[in-house]
Specification:
2 domains; 242 residues; four-stranded antiparallel sheet; Jelly Rolls; five-stranded mixed sheet; alpha+beta
Length: 242
């Protein structure tokens, strides 16, 4: 059998009703009532949210005080926000019918539901956005140091860091090119100096050889002259003795 659970939701024009969360039972129907006191023509916002694995097995419908269907989703959506116009104030009915297959397929059986004045809902969202953009609690302890400014600072810092890295990469490329050119010309310079050194060694060797040759030639000439002089002296001495 289908079981119905009826819960009254008071919606006042000057207040905003917070969303409430409840569980549904596979194979059963759960209904709520909401006393809508807003005037005709007022825009009402209906929001509900459930797991994506649950929505294919749930159908949801909302009827006004005269029984006219204001919204019907079969199957339901995982999350939606619908605007309806009040034509018949009074007790509205909200019913959710859940198939038995949800017991084995759905990962969660909870639904979040909210029914409130559309203008107040929009105002609440605007206040929350302004609060998140200016609140020290939400944005940081320092004045004018919100999350948005922090994100902008981080993005700017990351951009500067990226530029620095690119500049370093370019400098590294240029330095590598200079080193390669230097290595190529270094070998050429070393080869030139090596040739000059070899030529200098050859010239010095030639000069040394020439000097030694002259030195030995002069020495040998002097020895020959000394032997000749000695022979002359011996010849003169032998004559005198005769």
């Amino acid at each position: 059998m289908l079981a119905q659970v009826v819960i009254s939701l008071l919606l006042l024009l000057t207040t905003t009703t917070d969303a409430f969360r409840f569980s549904i039972t596979p194979g059963k129907k759960k209904c709520f009532t909401a006393d809508v006191s807003q005037e005709e023509g007022t825009r009402m916002e209906i929001q509900y949210r459930m797991a994506a694995s649950l929505s294919p097995f749930v159908s949801i419908s909302i009827t006004d005080g005269k029984g006219f269907v204001l919204m019907e989703h079969s199957p339901a959506q995982p999350a939606t926000r619908t605007i309806v116009v009040v034509k018949h104030p009074g007790t509205w009915g909200i019913c959710l019918n859940t198939a038995e297959k949800a017991l084995h397929s759905a990962t969660a059986l909870t639904v979040t539901l909210n029914l409130q004045d559309a203008a107040e809902a929009e105002g609440t969202r605007t206040q929350k956005q302004q609060y998140s953009a200016t609140s020290p609690v939400q944005l940081g302890t320092g004045k004018n140091k919100g999350a948005y400014r922090q994100m902008k600072y981080i993005a700017k810092l990351a951009h500067q860091l990226q530029g620095t890295v690119k500049h370093l990469l370019v400098e590294d490329h240029v330095l590598r090119g200079i080193m390669q050119e230097a290595e190529r010309y270094t070998w050429q310079v070393v080869l030139v100096y090596l040739m000059i050194a070899m030529a200098a060694v050859g010239v010095n060797a030639f000069r040394v050889r020439k000097y030694l040759k002259r030195y030995f030639y002069q020495t040998s000439g002097k020895e020959s002259q000394a032997r000749r002089n000695k022979k002359k002296v011996e010849a003169i001495n032998s004559r005198l003795q005769q």
